[in-house]
Design a protein that fits this description.
The chain has 292 residues and is α/β, with parallel strands linked by helices. It has a single domain, classed as Alpha-Beta Horseshoe (pyruvate-formate lyase- activating enzyme). Helices cover 37% and strands 17% of the residues. The chain contains ten helices and ten strands. It has helices at 49-61, 81-94, 107-111, 115-123, 138-143, 150-162, 181-195, 212-217, 227-240, 267-278; strands at 18-21, 23-24, 45-46, 68-72, 100-104, 126-134, 166-173, 199-204, 246-250, 259-263. The strands form two sheets. The chain has an eight-stranded mixed β-sheet with strand order 1-4-5-6-7-8-9-10. A two-stranded antiparallel ribbon has the order 2-3. α7 links the parallel β7 and β8 (199-204). α1 (49-61) runs parallel beside α2 (81-94) and α7 (181-195) packs parallel to α9. The longest helix is centred in the middle third of the chain and has 15 residues, at 181-195. Bound molecules: iron/sulfur cluster. Residues 26, 28-31, 34, 36-37, 74-75, 106, 132 line the site of iron/sulfur cluster. Residues 26, 28-31, 34, 36-37, 74-75, 106, 132 line the site of iron/sulfur cluster (SF4). Keywords: Iron, Iron-sulfur, Metal-binding, S-adenosyl-L-methionine. GO terms for molecular function: catalytic activity; iron-sulfur cluster binding; metal ion binding.
Length: 292
Amino acid sequence: MINYIEPLFRPPSEWKSLILQVTNGCSWNRCHFCDMYTAPQKQFRAQKIDKIAEDIQRVAQRNLSISRVFLADGDAMSLPFNRLEAICLLIREHLPQVTRISSYCLPRNLNNKTDAQLARLRELGLSLLYVGCESGDDEVLARIEKGETFDSSLLALQRIRAAGMKSSVMILNGLGGVELSRQHALNSARLMNEAQPDYLSTLVVTLPLGKARMDAGFDGDFKLPDQHGLLSEMQLLLGELELEKTIFRSDHASNYLALKGILGRDKQSLLTQVEQAIQGLVPLRQEWQRGL
Ligand code: SF4
């Protein structure tokens, strides 16, 4: 139905959505832990609007019951406002039953849109943005070359909320290595407390193609915390979180311990589960079960 440039990635919760590839690859593509868009065919470029219109019309002709659209690839918000508005209008025209449009989002590409532009996109259905903050710690963010800071991430999350959109934040467990684990947890919690995102998920850093790029920011030797270190970091993060109503998930395959709940309501129960895991009282995912 749609010819994608593979590989294609989407958040797990978008499994029922139409994936519309409005860009190929990632406009930044420099984060040291990320190998998602490093294949030669994934070099960044915006898709032509004619191709996007064709894809939407082809889907519309099938009369499928599609209510959600995810704009791929790595950061559709890198497109200028006019292009995003045109895409949303095409979706509205040809797929009027769609109630939610979502996308990954780098803070800087949100922050370069005006409040009025964000409100217009919200009006046209763009209502959920996935923000890979990764960390709230400026030193960690600099070492992995995220190109963002605590302040830029917070501003983007506040502006998403002000525009009436929802935010879903990813934090990477272990991203500061052994060396920066504590400040990574504390400042990530501080960022979340100030931003109060609608959704928060944590994933364990995985480096399937090796750790050479991570080594570059860690004096030549990035040391991922062991299982105990990762759980202790989660314990610190969760203990510091003061969230009012955030849906929390730590159930991605990369995690040794699957957790889910609503924060703050379930904070104590989540902390108890982590403490039990640290004490070896609950089974953890084995390496082969992590499906990486
Ligand atoms: S911005 Fe996202 S997709 Fe792009 S390199 Fe960083 S983590 Fe990967």
